[in-house]
């Protein structure tokens, strides 16, 4: 994308870019300039310590018994030792350096926010309120949120038909949803986990009627990315009387729908264990040594456009990509209507590779990309899959694809929304902004002649 000079930039933008560049430079120079050789050695030692800690974590996960105990001791001791070492020497210098770096990041993002690089907002559609909404509610979801927040009673007051799922036996939620549509339902909704939501959402998409999410699940990842209030599930029901519609994508893996992601490999194998629900950490620690060292588990190969992910430990295919550029935004998707799958592949075969994964800006063992279709093959006829957290097995190869705009989601007009992601730091653009004299760098717009900076 070209960078052009288009308009007069506010002085605030130019000076924010200059402060960002100056702060970043000082953050790097202060430890060496003030601490001299000691400061330089501490920075190098810190990087080495981070690598050792990453390697120790891998040893702890990939082994059992005394080796695991020793690795855990190392993983905990290394950061403690370095914190004590820094505190006893140049703690104030490192504190100053960290403060300067935080200032550089904050002012740099502030400068870039006004360069026209914001993500497009999710378009809202005004539609009439549903006349015969049908909601499925799981009384056990989220530790009993349905009863605690009076969701059934409020939904019925708003004119919805509510069916409480039987907690004692497995029910076919797709059949229940289709039956409701056959009886005239013009909206389907779910108060429950993401796995149940995906199944009912697919039925809504199949019949072209709106779908509604009530934030009664434990994690509510899909609801979070829709901008709903996860702290107040009852607020989701306002969509029945005062709502708007969003058009969002729907992912499929092996023909089954998912609203969040489909996971293959290590995590998918761990959640298959019956003990996982009651003891997640203990079950994972028990199974990971065999999975990480490949004594157990399928050997996967993922095909993503022209890229082949050979023998990854894990592959995560998501309905739109997750954010990876901001630690505060990890696990969130800013958009659900980009029409592409997010793909994250991970391969770590040794402690050394674990250290490289942490220290290398572009580690070979980590693949992050997007695609419309992904194929996951294996050395066996069936593989474990985590579909929106639900443990399944599917025949291989598993074909994953996305259907853009397949789902009409009705949400309250008044809701918290999805936070605007902070712009990714682009030092080249910041340098241009800082060097400009009353001008700003913005993305090029086709059809207009502009002067390049």
Averaging pLDDT over every residue, what do you get?
A: 86
Distance between the termini: 13 Å
Query: How much helix is in the residues?
Result: 25-40%
Residue share in β-strands = 15-25%
Could you tell me the number of beta strands? 19
Oligomer: single chain
Structural classification: alpha+beta
Query: How is the biggest beta sheet arranged?
Result: 10 strands, mixed
Number of helices: 13
Rg, Å, rounded: 25 Å
What would you call the shape? globular
> Low-confidence segments, ≥5 residues, pLDDT <50?
1-8, 439-453
What this model shows, in words?
This protein is α+β, with helices and mostly antiparallel strands and 453 residues long. Helix content is 39%, strand content 24%. The protein has 13 helices and 19 strands. The strands form 3 sheets. Strands 2, 3, 4, 5, 6, 7, 9, 10, 14 and 17 form a 10-stranded mixed β-sheet that branches. The chain is globular, with a radius of gyration of 25 Å. The N terminus and C terminus are likely disordered.
Q: What would a concise description of this structure say?
A:
With 453 residues, the protein is of the alpha+beta class. It is built from 13 helices and 19 strands.
């Amino acid at each position: 994308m070209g960078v052009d000079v288009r308009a007069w930039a506010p002085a605030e933008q130019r000076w924010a870019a200059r402060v960002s560049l100056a702060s970043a430079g000082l953050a790097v120079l202060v430890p060496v300039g003030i601490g001299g050789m000691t400061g330089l050695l501490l920075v190098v030692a810190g990087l080495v310590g981070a690598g050792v800690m990453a390697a120790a974590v891998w040893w702890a996960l990939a082994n059992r018994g005394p080796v695991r105990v020793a690795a855990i001791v190392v993983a905990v001791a290394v950061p403690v030792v370095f914190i004590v070492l820094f505190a006893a020497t140049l703690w104030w210098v490192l504190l100053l350096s960290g403060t300067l770096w935080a200032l550089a990041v904050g002012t740099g993002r502030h400068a870039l926010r006004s360069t026209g690089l914001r993500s497009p907002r999710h378009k809202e559609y005004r539609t009439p309120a549903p006349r015969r909404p049908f909601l499925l509610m799981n009384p056990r979801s989220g530790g009993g949120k349905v009863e605690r927040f009076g969701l059934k009673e409020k939904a019925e007051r708003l004119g919805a038909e509510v069916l409480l799922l039987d907690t004692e036996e497995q029910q076919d939620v797709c059949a229940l949803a289709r039956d409701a549509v056959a009886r005239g339902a013009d909206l389907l909704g779910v108060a429950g986990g993401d796995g149940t939501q995906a199944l009912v959402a697919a039925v809504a998409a199949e019949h072209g009627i709106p779908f509604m999410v009530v934030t009664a699940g434990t994690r509510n990842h899909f609801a979070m990315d829709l901008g709903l209030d996860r702290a107040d599930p009852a607020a989701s029901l306002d969509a029945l009387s005062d709502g708007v519609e969003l058009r969002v994508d729907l992912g499929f893996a092996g023909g089954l729908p998912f609203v969040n992601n489909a996971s293959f490999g290590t995590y998918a194998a761990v959640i298959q264990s019956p003990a996982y629900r009651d003891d997640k950490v203990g079950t994972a620690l028990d199974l990971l040594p065999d999975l990480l060292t490949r004594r157990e588990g399928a050997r996967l190969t993922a095909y993503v456009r022209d890229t082949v992910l050979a023998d990854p430990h894990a592959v995560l295919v998501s309905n739109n990509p997750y954010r990876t550029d901001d630690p505060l935004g990890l696990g969130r998707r800013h958009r659900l209507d980009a029409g592409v799958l997010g793909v994250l592949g991970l391969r770590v075969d040794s402690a050394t590779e674990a250290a490289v994964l942490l220290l290398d800006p572009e580690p070979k063992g980590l693949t992050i990309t997007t695609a419309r279709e992904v194929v996951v093959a294996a050395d066996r006829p069936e593989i474990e899959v985590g579909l929106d957290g639900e443990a399944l097995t599917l025949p291989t190869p598993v074909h994953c694809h996305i259907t853009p705009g397949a789902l009409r989601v009705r949400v309250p007009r008044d809701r918290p929304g999805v936070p605007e992601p902070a712009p990714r730091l682009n030092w080249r653009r910041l340098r241009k902004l800082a060097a400009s004299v009353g001008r700003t760098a913005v993305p090029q717009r086709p059809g207009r002649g502009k002067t390049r900076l």
